[in-house]
């Protein structure tokens, strides 16, 4: 059975190139494309793909807002956030909005395919950027109820976190 995908990205060249790459995989089927967050939201509701590859920054409604709407309406569709940037702020907002993963656009085609398949299988996997975050930070980013209690300043310094990561924790 094919994994049905919707690609939402305002950069036409990237969107269409990704479509071509994914269509070469026998188990992946691109069922639609959207050039802004509002269109992505509407197409996701109408087409019911298994997964939306959602760019973070798009016109009309950004990808984070579109993801929030899909989650709020309990639309059973997985969202993988896409971004050219791998900064803490974008990762934080994407995960908090309900995305199940985050892919940096400079990932290889093979990495995109691997992450899509793993995510559909229920395995939490993202671009290598998140793999380097400390588990406590990642749990906090995800809003986990089982996250460790607040850390002391001394413990935070041992984790070698950025100033922004320390503020989040």
CATH class descriptor of the largest domain:
Alpha Beta
What is the percent of helical residues? 40-55%
Low-confidence blocks of residues: 144-156
- Major sheet details: 5 strands, parallel
| N-to-C SSE string, H for helix and E for strand | EHEHEHEHEHHHHH
Please indicate the count of domains. 2
CATH topology call of the largest domain: Rossmann fold
Q: Roughly what is the average pLDDT, rounded to an integer?
A: 80
- What is the number of strand segments? 5
**CATH H level, superfamily name of the largest domain:** Response regulator
Spatial strand sequence of the major β-sheet: 2-1-3-4-5
CATH architecture of the largest domain: 3-Layer(aba) Sandwich
Overall 3D form: globular
The helix tally amounts to 9
- What's the Cα radius of gyration? 16 Å
Distance between the termini: 41 Å
Which structural class do you get from the secondary structure elements?
alpha/beta
Polypeptide structure, described:
The chain is built from nine helices and five strands; from the N terminus they run βαβαβαβαβααααα. It has a five-stranded parallel beta sheet, with helices on both faces. It is α/β, with parallel strands linked by helices. Helix 2 runs parallel beside helix 3. The chain starts with a strand and ends with a helix. The protein has two domains: 129 residues, Rossmann fold (3-Layer(aba) Sandwich); 37 residues, no CATH class.
Question: Descriptors for this entry?
Answer:
5-stranded parallel sheet; 9 helices; 169 residues; 46% helix; Rossmann fold; 2 domains; alpha/beta
């Amino acid at each position: 059975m094919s994994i049905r995908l919707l690609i939402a990205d305002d950069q036409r060249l990237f969107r269409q190139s990704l479509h071509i790459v994914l269509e070469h995989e026998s188990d992946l089927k691109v069922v639609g494309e959207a050039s802004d967050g509002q269109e992505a939201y509407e197409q996701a509701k109408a087409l019911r793909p298994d997964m939306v590859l959602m760019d973070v920054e798009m016109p009309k409604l950004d990808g984070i807002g579109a993801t929030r709407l899909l989650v709020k309406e309990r639309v059973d569709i997985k969202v993988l956030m896409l971004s050219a940037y791998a900064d803490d702020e974008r990762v934080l907002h994407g995960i908090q909005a309900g995305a199940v993963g985050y892919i940096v656009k400079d990932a290889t085609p093979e990495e995109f395919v691997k992450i899509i398949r793993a995510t559909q299988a229920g395995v939490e996997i993202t671009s290598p950027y998140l793999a380097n975050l400390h588990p406590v930070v990642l749990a906090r980013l995800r809003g986990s109820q089982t996250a460790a209690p607040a850390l002391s300043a001394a413990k935070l310094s041992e984790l070698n976190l950025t100033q922004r990561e320390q503020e989040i924790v």
